[in-house]
Amino acid sequence: MTGSPDQPSADDQGGVPESPYAPDEVVVQDGVGVPDPFMRLWTPHRMAYIEGENKPTSDKAGSGCPFCRLPGLPDADALIVHRGEAAYAVLNLYPYNPGHLMVVPYRHVADYTELTAAEVTDVSELTRQAMQAVRAVSAAHGFNIGMNQGEIAGAGIAAHLHQHVVPRWAGDTNFMPAIAHTKVLPQLLSETRALLAKSWPTAP
């Protein structure tokens, strides 16, 4: 069953509504700008990141810094995967790829050179364990690992150091991110957190 342009309806099986237009037909809609032949994949959840949701307005430590606040929440609420002695591993709320983790020292410190020897050791060990957990869960082919030091280098929250652990797979840079600037994430973050936490290796 085909609906009108104003009110398309799905078929009896609950499928996607059929388009009343020819595939190459440009539909002119009043008041929405210049029409074009491109389809749109809307990702409104990204607007929270664009508008700076959860980004601190101050460089000071405390509840205004999400990385200071998260350890005080239950693991499931904070998306914390594992807690170490001097640092913790948490899922990125705006991931580049599925399983994108961050390793964060508990102490509010901005620069890598300011870390203590114990913090450096824990950040390094949690990074190694994060790689093992992600490989066990999703057989990642590789990783991008690193930290952006300072806003000029691209740090979203420059005042509290955090190291990214981004899983990579062959073909993960397909047309979606390259052309549509959109990442397809096939799993809820809460489910990813649970899987990684379950598969987190024990320290040697």
TrEMBL record:
InterPro entries with a match to the protein in the record: AP-4-A_phosphorylase, FHIT, HIT-like, HIT-like_sf
Residues at which substrate binds: 92, 164
CDD domains the UniProt entry points to: FHIT (cd01275)
Keywords in alphabetical order: Nucleotide-binding
Annotated region (Disordered), positions in chain: 1-25
Domain of life of the organism encoding this protein: Bacteria
The UniProt record lists the keyword Nucleotide-binding: yes
Domain HIT: residue ranges: 66-175
Molecular functions per Gene Ontology: catalytic activity; nucleotide binding
Renumbered ranges of motif Histidine triad motif: 160-164
Active site, renumbered: 162 (tele-amp-histidine intermediate)
Protein known as: HIT domain-containing protein
